[in-house]
Amino acid sequence: MPESLKWYDEKADNSPWIRVLAEVRHRATREGYCFQHVQAITVAIDQYAEAALGNRSYFLNKPYSIGGSTNGN
Predict the structure, then answer these.
(1) Whose CA is closest to 26, among 45, 1, 11?
(2) From the first residue on, what is the mean pLDDT of each consecutive set of 10 residues in the chain (73 residues)?
(3) In whole angstroms, how far apart are CA 44 and each of 3, 33, 39?
(4) Distance of alpha carbon 15 from alpha carbon 71, whole angstroms
(5) Backbone angles phi, psi at 36, to 5 degrees
(6) What are the structural domain ranges in the chain?
(7) 26: nearest Cα among 9, 49, 42, 4
(8) 46 closest CA partner among 21, 23, 13, 14
(9) Could you give the count of Cα atoms lying within 13 Å of 17 in the half-sphere of its Cβ?
(10) What is the structure's pLDDT at 71?
(11) Is 0.85 surpassed by the pTM of this model?
(12) Is residue 4 a contact partner of residue 54, using CB atoms and an 8 Å limit?
């Protein structure tokens, strides 16, 4: 059985590196100054997440199952 995907949880005890990547990824969505540079940084973060953590969408919102609770259980 394949291992389930991991997702970023801001309440978890993450390393400082992962916390900073999550913050930069989040802030990049609101930056409009130089779209190409911001997009390149976002893609690089997503590629790192895929290579190191096994999930390209690691820093995006954790999906909820149909009828599932929103408290992460």
Answers:
(1) 45
(2) 66 81 82 80 85 80 60 51
(3) 24, 18, 9
(4) 22
(5) -65, -40
(6) 16-53
(7) 42
(8) 21
(9) 5
(10) 53
(11) no
(12) no
